[in-house]
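INFO batch 0412 | record 1 of 1 | parsing
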Amino acid sequence: MRTDLSATLFLSDPGEYDGGELVVGASSGTHRVKLPAGDMVLYPATTIHKVEAITRGERLASFFWIQSMVRDEGERTLLFNLDVAIQKLNQDHPGHPSSVELVGVYHNLLRKWAEL
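INFO prediction complete | emitting tokens
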């Protein structure tokens, strides 16, 4: 099985324990993640990561891997960046006609690159 993405689902609230941050390395630097119960973080499965020591309480989390419909990491990155740009356009200019066109481009690329 191919594993493209890693996911960590936080099951404990941050106030229930000290330490225990998920530390994820990325090209933009190291990110420390400690989210509320029910929140989840996704990151490339090839990313080097670790969990800091827990110094008080108990940290409960679930982690798993996801196989994307799009095999190529570069294509997934382009889709992600396009989606972020569309969301920003919708936030800055709600109802802008270009948003509909860009969503069409996103879906056409997804159909082109997806392995079904």
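INFO post-check: The longest strand covers residues 5-10.
INFO record closed
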